[in-house]
Specification:
The complex is a heterodimer of chains A (260) and B (429). Chain A has 260 residues and is of the alpha/beta class. Chain A is 39% helix and 23% strand. Chain B is mainly alpha-helical and 429 residues long. Chain B has a four-stranded mixed β-sheet, sandwiched between helices. In chain B, strand 1 (52-58), helix 3 and strand 2 (77-82) form a beta-alpha-beta unit. In chain B, helix 1 crosses helix 13 (272-301) and helix 14 runs parallel beside helix 18 (405-428). The chains are: A alpha/beta (260), B mainly alpha (429). The structure holds adenosine-5'-triphosphate and magnesium ion (MG). The site of magnesium ion has 4 residues of chain A, from helix 2.
């Protein structure tokens, strides 16, 4: 995806994303979806945000991607603040929403072309980027079909690829592998690892434990809108004595349903 | 600017692929304008705003019938004459009652003869000391279509009475003239003085001295097209269709908001205002096409189905501006609808209710002047009323661009308020 030399990226160090004491309520009366949420993600990291349904993952990603501001607390991305440098931040973040973010009645190419133009691309450069994204999604042959005619897995892959259109420096992926088959998931994992090796910082939300264990260099467990544990997966397992992340997760968050 | 065009292009592409949406946007106002105009054309007949069709049966054939028809022909009557050898009074009554004609007139047998007798005997009558014993009036039968409005009925009655009285007056003067000549002749004056100045008196008395000037519905310009339901309905239903685009606009926004698209768009380096602008540009184009379609139907199709043609008089540029500003208001409403509602069902129910109610209040369905006083005052809150007032100022009253500035101003303000509100919603949701 990115032609630049990965080794140059690796030398970059510092904080890609920093969130301090975020609070976000959807309704004044309800309990907060984010409750004193703190997080630091370093440049070049593949960070996994793990949580039950309703834990606040999507809300966190929405705040990071500037969809809405937090009620209180601060977010900075690559050292920039949304309140002052929203436009600059938007040039360097890539967002892949949990819901499919594509126009059903447009083809893959038309979707990519539309979003690409909104990033300001045009002409040959736009065409080149679209081709790369189609290749990434494995949809080069199906580029002119309407998205509505795609299978769930194809939509997911295109949804992910669209977030990479402008070669972002930091990617927010909100459960990008929900409801797809092993082949598609495998392809996505491989490509995300490659992107990360190329230097792109990734924040990845999921509730698939094996996925987090396989991909992420560091994970954070969110519960009730708050990070309750974070660290490298292996280190966390050693400390807790759990056999796998699933067990650790259940120990931490309990066995009853959490989204009610 | 390029990004606005990109957004507008995407919007049009989506619309092009939405067959039912297109059908609603273009077919609905087209059908409405044709059906409603055809229906109202009938209403205009019943209220006398068109030529009155008069059915005439002369059982007398003694000259009175011809005089009466001659008197009526210069008023707005389309007279059909039945032959007494083929039809009778009952048939005429039935035809009028069925609504084929608004009024039927039957001259009974021997009416001309009676008229002559009455006028000849006039002088003897006046000598008789009690007028109460004067012979009765000469009956002329009139039948009205039961569907016509009371106002038109009394107007027609007065016209017929007037025509008959004039004929009677002429007959009386003719008799008087002859008597005077006779009397003068008895005194032997006539031979010296030449013909008496009484000649031609009858015609002179029959002549009207007053002329009621019809000021052309108080319209200003000389080139005003005639007021008919077409001039009202074509812009009215085009406006209705244009405001209905609010629902597809809201639908487009809700589709984005309810999928991940809205989050993706929010993460792009473009503001909500730009995205709104793209939608406004696209749908203003749609509204313009709607107006053109309805206008062309009015101009070219209406004459083929027996309706008067739509006339765009005077200021085409001002008409275009009215179309554009009306569509601006419609787009603003659509955007706010899409941002304020939670589901498409909500938006389409609320949207169509508001549009239909505003259309009714605004005078699209029933002209404002025909509404009760309170409703007339309320009508000015409807954006459709602003558009309609502007169109009527231009197309019916023949005013120039200056007359519509206030309406265009209101529509701009409405649009800006809608966008401002929608933008606030977009930033907090
Ligand atoms: N638009 C909204 N209006 C009101 N409440 C909301 C809204 N979106 C989320 N919530 C609430 O906020 C809390 C966090 O939701 P969020 O979507 O962030 O969870 P999540 O971790 O992404 O869950 P999932 O794994 O199911 O996607 C939940 O209690 C949810 O009910
Ligand atoms: Mg979620």
């Amino acid at each position: 995806m990115n032609a630049r030399n990965p080794s140059l990226y690796k030398k970059e160090s510092g904080i890609a994303l920093e969130a301090n004491s975020l609070v976000k309520r959807y309704n004044k009366s309800s309990r907060p979806a984010l409750n004193d949420f703190d997080l630091q993600v370093n440049k070049g990291e593949f960070f996994g945000l793990l949580g039950t349904n309703g834990a606040g993952k999507t809300t966190a990603v929405s705040v990071f991607s500037g969809f809405f501001p937090p009620d209180s607390g601060t977010v900075s991305i690559m050292g920039m603040d949304f309140r002052r440098q929203a436009h600059k931040i938007r040039q360097i973040i890539g967002v892949v929403p949990q819901e499919i973010a594509l126009y059903d009645k447009l083809s893959a190419r038309e979707n990519l072309s539309f979003f690409g133009r909104l990033y300001g691309f045009g002409g040959k450069l736009l065409e080149a980027r679209i081709d790369l994204c189609l290749q990434f999604a494995g949809l080069t042959d199906q580029a002119t079909r309407l998205v509505s005619a795609y299978s769930g897995g194809m939509k997911r892959r295109l949804n992910l690829a669209t977030g990479l259109l402008h070669a972002p420096q930091i990617l927010f992926l909100d459960e990008p592998t929900v409801g797809i088959d092993t082949q598609s998931r495998h392809l996505i994992h491989k490509q995300l690892t490659a992107l990360n090796l190329a230097g792109i910082t990734i924040l990845y939300t999921t509730h698939y434990m094996e996925e987090a264990q396989e991909l992420c260099s560091r994970i954070g467990i969110i519960d009730g809108g708050k990070i309750i544990l974070q660290g490298k997966p292996n280190r966390l397992l050693q400390q807790s004595g759990s056999r796998n992340l699933e067990e650790l997760f259940l120990d931490l968050t309990g066995k009853q349903l959490r989204d009610t | 600017m390029r990004k606005i065009i990109t957004t507008a292009g995407k919007e049009l592409l989506l619309l092009k692929r939405d067959r039912t949406g297109l059908l609603v946007l273009f077919l609905m106002p087209a059908i409405l304008v044709i059906v409603i105009t055809l229906v109202q054309e009938n209403v205009m007949e019943l209220t006398g705003q068109k030529n009155t069709r008069l059915l005439f049966l002369d059982l007398d054939e003694g000259g009175l019938g011809n005089s009466l028809r001659g008197r009526l022909s210069d008023n707005n009557f389309a007279i059909v004459v039945w032959d007494k050898r083929q039809k009778n009074s009952d048939a005429l009554q039935a035809a009028v009652a069925a609504g084929d004609y608004q009024v039927g007139v039957v001259i009974p047998e021997k009416s001309s003869h009676k008229l002559q007798q009455r006028t000849e005997g006039m002088l003897e009558e006046s000598k008789a000391d009690d007028m109460k014993n004067a012979p009765g009036k000469i009956p002329v039968d009139v039948f009205f279509d039961p569907g016509i409005m009371p106002g038109l009925r009394s107007g027609l009655t007065a016209q017929l009475q007037m025509a008959l009285e004039t004929i009677a007056m002429e007959a009386k003067i003719t008799v008087l003239e002859r008597k005077v000549t006779e009397i003068v002749g008895q005194f032997g004056l006539a031979r010296d003085a030449g013909p008496l100045p009484t000649a031609g008196l009858a015609a002179l008395f029959g002549r009207q001295l007053f002329a009621l000037q019809d000021g052309g519905d108080s319209a200003r310009a000389g080139t005003t097209p005639p007021y008919n339901p077409v001039q009202q309905n074509v812009p009215a239903w085009a406006l209705f269709g244009m405001f209905f685009t609010a629902i597809p606009i809201a639908g487009a926004i809700l589709q984005e908001r309810r999928s991940g698209i809205w989050i993706r768009l929010a993460s792009l380096p473009v503001s909500h205002l730009l995205l709104f602008a793209g939608k406004v540009v696209a749908y203003m184009g749609v509204c313009l096409c709607q107006f053109l379609l309805i206008g062309l139907i009015g101009v070219f199709l209406f004459p083929y189905i027996g309706l008067p043609a739509f006339v765009v008089a005077g200021h085409p540029l001002a008409v275009l501006l009215t179309v554009l500003f009306s569509s601006l208001a419609a787009c603003g409403f659509g955007i706010v609808l899409g941002m304020a509602c939670k589901t498409y069902e909500q938006a389409s129910t609320l949207g169509s209710t508001v549009v239909v109610a505003s259309a009714a209040i605004g005078g699209i369905m029933v002209p404002v002047y025909a509404m009760p006083q309170t409703m007339q005052q309320i009508s000015i809150i409807s954006p459709l009323n602003w558009g309609l007032t502007a169109f009527q100022d231009l197309l019916v009253r023949g005013y120039g661009g200056a007359a519509i500035v206030d309406d265009l101003g209101r529509m701009t303000l409405f649009f800006l308020l809608c966008i401002l509100f929608a933008w606030k919603l977009a930033r907090t949701r």
